[in-house]
Amino acid sequence: MDIRKLEGSVVALVTPFDRQGKVDFEALERLVDFQIEAGTDAILALGTTGESSTMTHEEDNEVARCVVERVAGRVPVIAGSGSNCTETMLEKSLAYQKIGVDGLLTITPYYNKSSEEGIYRHFKVVADAVDIPCILYNIPGRCGCSISVNNVERLSQHPNIMGIKEASGNVSFAASIAHLLSDDFRMYSGEDALTLPLMALGASGTISVWADVQPALVHEMCRSFLDGDIERAREIQIAGIPLIHALFSEVNPIPVKEAVAQMGLIEANYRLPLCPMAKDTRARLIEAMKGAGILD
Predict the structure, then answer these.
(1) What is the pLDDT of residues 171-213, one digit of tens each?
(2) Is the residue at 236 inside a domain?
(3) pLDDT at residue 92, as a whole number
(4) Which alpha helices (DSSP H) does the chain contain, by range?
(5) Which helix (H) or strand (E) holds 12?
(6) Which of 43, 139, 198, 245 is deepest in the core (most CB within 10 A)?
(7) For the chain, what is the mean pLDDT?
């Protein structure tokens, strides 16, 4: 499935674990169906929200395979193949392509960071080797480094790089790369609280944690904006802020997994160093979910 013109809401899907700490594939299939039935435009597996940093490569492959098979072509599937080791990112990217994903989310080299040229080559090596589109992922708060405006411009010219997930939280940075946007290079919001501001700058939609909990509403917000109903999109974005803040009251994906568990779709199990929510933040999350009409 060609994702180069993808727009709307892409859910950054959680990876459910059972009480023994193993991937719960039955629950994962439920999540896929829940998302598609709610109108989600595409599914991202194995992103930050997918807790892939705690999983083995073999588990990553099985999750990607499960999602691709359950989706069965109903919506596009994107896999997060990022690593701070370029060779590892390449190996994962090729493996996911073989499994049948429609696109890849590739990330800056965290911890080792690298130079400007090193970051450019890090992305280019993968884009040169695969036959499916790649989305750059800019999230300096987690990686300790950012993709510079200059590197975004250079990489946007690569035929296999279709866009950027912009999660710096810096609207000024998003504005500084907005002139690069076209049908061949798109931007997606990586900050749920800033989706509408980034769409006003030309973003095609969002890759969203919020959509794990309210997929139909996030889809509606993006679709409303794209269809010109700015007032409805604005109404949804503003009304969603309390829940969005609660979903990020602890390190992602801790709160969103708790939220999805509260909805009865998974169990809130984690792998260290991630652990269950503290009582106070959990209570605030539940109140926010009640305020949003998700829980009674």
Answers:
(1) 999 999 999 999 999 999 999 999 999 999 999 999 999 999 9
(2) no
(3) 97
(4) 25-37, 57-71, 86-99, 116-129, 140-143, 149-156, 171-177, 195-200, 215-226, 230-247, 254-262, 279-291
(5) strand 8-12
(6) 43
(7) 96
Domain interval for residue 122: 8-230
Q: DSSP labels for 251-290?
A: STTHHHHHHHHHTTSS-----TT--PPPHHHHHHHHHHHH
Active-site choice (96, 120, 137, 188): 137
Q: Two tokens at 26?
A: 């039955």
Q: Tell me, yes or no, if 270 is annotated catalytic.
A: no
Q: What is the pLDDT of residues 214-232, one digit of tens each?
A: 999 999 999 999 999 999 9
Residue 277 lies in a domain: no
* In the predicted structure, residue 77 carries a pLDDT above the cut 80: yes
Whole-angstrom distance, CA of residue 50 vs CA of residue 102:
17
CATH number at 50 reads 3.20.20.70
> Residue 277 and residue 73: Cα distance in Å, rounded?
35
Q: Is residue 1 part of a domain?
A: no
Q: How far apart are alpha carbons 40 and 280 in whole angstroms?
A: 31
The count of domains in the chain is 1
Instruction: Return the SS3 of 177.
Output: helix
Region label for 72, one of left (φ > 0), alpha (ψ between -120 and 50) or beta (otherwise):
left
Does residue 111 have an active-site annotation? no
Q: φ, ψ for residue 138 (rounded to 5)?
A: -105, 105
158 falls within a domain: yes
In the block, tokens 């690593």 appear at 83
CA distances from 262 to 256, 266, 287, 288 (A): 10, 8, 12, 12
Task: Name the active-site residue from 165, 188, 257, 279.
Answer: 165
